[in-house]
Structure formats: C-alpha cells, structure tokens
Design goal:
Pantoate--beta-alanine Ligase, Chain: A,domain 2, three-stranded antiparallel beta sheet, single chain, six-stranded parallel beta sheet, binds adenosine monophosphate, 286 residues, Rossmann fold, alpha/beta, 2 domains, 9 strands
Length: 286
C-alpha cells in the first residue's frame, strides 16, 4: 500500500487506465470500514482509501476534538485488507483556499436534509457534501463505496452526484455489527464499559420497531415505545427514533406507498452520540 499526503502526489500516482473504487473514512477504522474495502476490492483493480477528519462536518467542537485518531493502526489494517492507496491529507490540502470552496456549495438538498441528522446537526451535510465533492475531484473513482450505517449521508451524496452530473457509481454496504448487535462505529471506543453495555439497547429497540412495522403495526406507538424504552435507561438520552420513507427521507405516514422504510435513531450515550438505522424491506415483508 502506498500512502500520500497531498492531492497532487496522489493524483500523479493513480493509474487512470484502471478501475478505481474509493472508500472515504475519518479513521479509527474497524470491521465496518473493512467491509467497505472488501466490497471495493470486488470488481475493481485499484482500491483507494482516505482518512480525513473533516472539520466542516462537525457541529460540536468537543466532538471534533474527541474524535479518535489512530493513523498507524489504520494503515496496518488497510494494508492487511488489500487497500492499494491511502490518502492522508491535511486540512490545508483539502481546503487550500479556505472552507468556502466546494463544487457542492449552495446545493439545496431539500427534504433529504430536513429530518434525522440534517435536522439535529446544523450544517453537517453541507460539510459532508463539501468534503466528498473535493475528494471525488481528487481521486476520480469509478465507484464510491459507503456504509448503510449513515443512511442519510448516502442519500445526500447520491443527490449531490446527480446534481453535479458526476459519473461515479455509489455502492452501499450493509451495516456491520458487533456480536451483540451494536453497530460498529469509531465512536464506540469512546464509551466506558457501562455505556457500552447500555448501547446494546439501541439496536434492540430498532429491531423491535422494524419487526413491528413488518407485522403491520402503526408507526407512532412503535416510535414512542422505542423512544421511551431508550430514554428509560439512565445512561441513554435518545434524540429521535423515527420511521422514514427510505427514498424521500420524509417521515412515514401509515398507509403511504413506499418501497422501503427505514427506522433511524440518534442516542446520546454519556458524552458520545451514536446513530443507527434498520431498513424494513416492504417488498419482501408484505
Ligand atoms: P466514518 O469513518 O465514520 O466517516 O465512516 C466511513 C465510511 O464507513 C462511511 O461510508 C460509513 O457509513 C461507513 N461505516 C461506518 N461504520 C460502518 C459499519 N458499522 N458498517 C458499515 N459501514 C460503516
């Protein structure tokens, strides 16, 4: 694996005649990220990963400061899993003329960012679109590989790709979980043992909502029950548990004709904010 710290040097090194899959990350890598690397390996000649803790997508400076950084372990893990190129840029390399420049600046994502994380983290998705558009311009991959764990992020990036008329394909990989069901996340390593045990409830409640939906139960009591169950735990403080139309990301209203439902949540667990979601595939769960 070859590592580059500047856009110029990476650009020069990448073999443009080969198919390239790209996995952008913020580091503190785990098996969820490695599932993206594995998916990238399949069907592409070159796998590129980036590690960049993007300041413009953090709406809380304490979250940015606390974000785990483990570059040496990350590089070893990427190499072991067959990554070919690692891009480890500085803030100045990604934003050479300051934070204002972005092909994605000013895109109005409308309802796609009106709910979930968009509603709870002001400016977050503008920052995500900004950094992803910049990274895509540098790497120019055939395929961008992303995790379903960040469901709304995928929707926003797909919309940005469409809006900017980019040709990149977006490949989504299912969420990888710990044996007890907790979605893998770089932030999990910030949890103390008690918080880690409590965090198991997040997936448990999402599973209960998903099962209820598949069985045809009404939306509101399912949401309210899960919210209350999470809130009852002394170490958990849920921000939302809500069921959405997976395509529009608008809140689901019972009886709406939708392809896929997603139940999503954000929960504060001590100082750490965790997100998770479950898809309910109505076509296969009539
Ligand atoms: P992050 O480093 O958290 O910005 O994540 C980088 C990429 O990995 C994003 O596309 C995430 O959706 C994806 N990802 C993070 N956690 C998981 C997981 N548990 N399973 C699958 N993909 C994940």
């Amino acid at each position: 694996m070859r590592t580059y710290q500047t856009a110029d040097s990476l650009r020069k090194a990448l073999p443009r005649h080969k198919s390239i899959a790209f996995v952008p990350t913020m580091g503190a890598l785990h098996a969820g990220h490695m599932a993206l690397i594995k998916a990238a390996r399949q069907g592409h000649e070159i796998v590129v990963a980036s590690i960049f803790v993007n300041p413009t997508q953090f709406n809380e400076s304490t979250d940015l400061d606390a974000y785990p950084r483990t570059p040496q372990e990350d590089a070893a893990l990427l190499k072991k899993h067959g990554c070919d190129f690692l891009y480890l840029p500085s803030v100045a390399d990604i934003y050479p003329t300051g934070f204002d420049t972005s092909a994605a600046a000013g895109i109005d994502f409308g309802p796609l960012t009106a709910t979930m994380e968009g509603a709870n983290r002001p400016g977050h998705f503008d920052g995500v679109a900004q950094v992803v558009s910049r990274l895509l311009a540098i790497v120019e991959p055939d395929t961008l590989v992303m995790g379903q764990k960040d469901y709304q992020q995928v929707a926003v990036v797909r919309a940005m790709v469409q809006r900017l008329d980019l040709t990149v394909r977006v490949l989504v990989v299912p969420t990888v979980r710990e044996p007890d069901g907790l979605a893998m996340s770089s932030r999990n390593r910030l949890l103390n043992p008690g918080e880690r045990r409590a965090a198991v409830l997040i997936n448990r409640q999402l599973s209960a909502v998903a099962a209820g939906l598949a069985a045809g139960w009404p939306t509101q009591p399912l949401e309210q029950f899960a919210l209350a169950a999470l809130g009852d735990h002394e170490l958990l403080d849920p921000e939302y548990v809500q069921i959405f139309d997976g395509d529009t990301l608008l809140p689901y209203v019972d009886g709406d004709n939708v392809r896929e439902l997603v139940v999503a949540t954000a929960v504060r667990c001590g100082q750490v904010r965790l997100i998770d979601n479950r898809i309910v595939d109505l076509l296969h769960n009539p």
